[in-house]
Amino acid sequence: MFSLLISLVILFLLDLFLGSVQIPFHSILNILTNTVNEKESWQIIILNNRLPKALAAILCGAALSVSGLQMQTLFRNPLAGPYILGISAGAGLGVAIFIMGLSMFGISANSLSFFGSYGIVISSFIGSLLVLLILLASIYRLKDMMTVLILGIMLGSITTAFISIIQYFSYDSQLKSFIMWTMGNLNSISNTQLLVISPFLILGLVWSFLISKQLNLYLLGEDYAKTLGLNVKNFQLTVVVITALLTGLVTAYCGPIGFIGIIVPHLSRMLSKTSNHKILIPLSILIGINVLLFADIISILPNSDTILPINAITSFIGIPIIIWIIFKNKRITNVG
Amino acid sequence: MESLIHISGLTIGYNKCTVVKNMTTSFNSGELICIIGRNGEGKSTLIKTLCRLIPPISGSISVKNNDLFKLADKDFANLISVVLTSKITITNISVKEFVAFGRYPYTNWLGKLTEEDEIQVETAVEMCGINSLTNRDFSSLSDGEKQKVNIARAIAQNTPIIILDEPTAHLDLVNNMEIFKLLKVLANDYNKTIIFSTHYIELALQLADKICLVNNESCHCDTPKNTVDSKKIDQLFDKKTVKYNAVNNSFEFIF
């Protein structure tokens, strides 16, 4: 746990240090601590570009990992992740309609000045909210969580079908900006936006920790949880709301960032050898932050001007880890 | 004496498909109650209704004069502990932690065990004779060991009523008898009401204070002696293969 904290700090500083413009390390520290006046261009690069990006990596890493962990517990499925319920697909549809669909009706997205900066965020959030509402309604109606899971996957598929229709009829430039969104981007978030979402993300993370006792009990299965005094329906709703809050916000600002939410819970289980969420949640937060900072560092390709899409990097890191877990354990069904 | 559990006019089943009709009986503290009957006659349905996992079609169950289905979740967990047949797939958890799940209704939001909780867990572990297992991983245990650990969990919950659904299915004879004996001790010495379903009719007839015989959409509850004398047992079987010998308390083939 302690070494993870140290590596987190190192990765954070490295993330600030590396980039297309070389800035000496002591200058970065000076800018951060605001002691000595450094070059203004450097200040802008650090404070308006690299710092929000690194902070975004921290918040997203933590949020996606914890919601992935909760989904794996809720569905007792090792391959569940934050996007399993179709939340990212819903967000995707919202964004697709915003970027590409509006022009079909003769409205140019650029002409809506207010939407210019917040349009993607708002449309994505509305999209994931709609999926969430359908899910909440279905949890009340359906008995079995597995049915809800299947419904989530179906919702995701139909949403993707809508998206592809919109894509088919849209212009190249719009198509490109939508594809860019789906590749994930930690860069697009500004300092003010960070200030807006971080309280909500922290709320979600703290809330998850507060229900860790319930999450533990839920591992025994729904029936046992009921007989041991857990209000199962309320609990399931709570978990879905927390996950939607965490994932919905992250996806709205940074696009759907894959694999973090699936691998990090497995890594924390393997490291701690426990199913206790009181330990797994803080550990997932730490590991999630480390992994996403690491992915971000790789994506900047030090000493070059190019930034690779973050989603490609998380897949490059994530898939080998999943395969390694499969071969090491022979099975990854030890979710509990 | 006021009865602990009172069942009146209870009709149970799934989705309007009735399994047992119009059952009325009551259970007292310190009684060992066995539910017997053929496969598919509704033993599990009865158990699940008593654990309030499925609602009854009609009729009522009251525990300590409270309607079972109107109890708050926490109050239910303080009255009744449950051992089901559903497979528990939890991994990476020690036996002791597993038994401590029984303290869930009593612990604070962090699930921190107090001294009292520790004592209850310790006692439950002692009673089930699983001291040697406490540091093992739950998923590494054999079926029989898992069952004992799960019963220890129910005991740690420290409720006046324990309900078990076929606690000895899949177990060998020794494990089976150990668990039956443990249940008897819990009822006799600790004044708990134990309700469990089983296919081991001979053992049930030897040990139980009350037999609930589920057959042909009805549930008949009586002492083992009356159940045997009234020839109710014989109704369970077709007359071509099995015969119940009341003198030896055993089943015999008919060829």
What is the element layout, followed by pairings?
The complex is a heterodimer of chains A (336) and B (255).
Chain A (H helix, E strand, L loop, with lengths): L1 H16 L7 H9 L6 H36 L11 H18 L8 H29 L3 H24 L3 H11 L8 H20 L1 H7 L3 H6 L4 H23 L5 H13 L4 H23 L10 H20 L7
Helix pairs in contact in A: 1-3, 1-13, 2-3, 3-8, 3-11, 3-12, 3-13, 4-5, 4-6, 4-7, 5-6, 5-11, 8-11, 12-13, 12-14, 13-14
Chain B lengths: L4 E10 L2 E11 L4 E6 L5 H8 L7 E6 L2 E2 L5 H7 E4 L11 H6 L14 H13 L15 H14 L4 E4 L8 H18 L2 E5 L3 H7 L2 E6 L2 E5 L1 H6 L12 E4 L4 E4 L2
Parallel strand pairs in B: 3-8, 3-9, 6-7, 7-8
Antiparallel strand pairs in B: 1-2, 1-4, 4-5, 9-10, 11-12
What does this structure look like?
The complex is a heterodimer of chains A (336) and B (255). Chain A is mostly helical. Chain A has one domain: ABC transporter involved in vitamin B12 uptake, BtuC (Orthogonal Bundle). Chain A has 14 helices and no strands. In chain A, helix 3 runs parallel beside helix 8 and helix 5 runs antiparallel to helix 6. The longest helix of chain A has 36 residues. The radius of gyration of chain A is 20 Å and the shape is globular. The mean pLDDT of chain A is 85. In chain B, the strands form three sheets. A six-stranded mixed sheet of chain B has the order 6-7-8-3-9-10, with helices on both faces. In chain B, strands 2-1-4-5 form a four-stranded antiparallel sheet, with helices on one face. A two-stranded antiparallel ribbon of chain B has the order 11-12. In chain B, helix 4 crosses helix 5. Chain B is globular. Chains A and B meet through helix 9 and helix 10 of A and helix 2 and strand 6 of B.
Task: Supply Rg of chain B.
Answer: 19 Å
| Overall pLDDT of chain B | 91
How many β strands of chain A by DSSP? 0
Q: Kindly report how far apart the N and C termini of chain A lie.
A: 22 Å
- Spell out the helices and strands of chain A N to C: HHHHHHHHHHHHHH
Our count of domains of chain A comes out at 1
Residues in β-strands, percent of chain B: 25-35%
Give the strand content of chain A.
under 5%
Overall geometry of chain A comes to globular
Which residues of chain A sit in consecutive blocks of at least 5 with pLDDT less than 50? none
Proper CATH architecture of chain A: Orthogonal Bundle
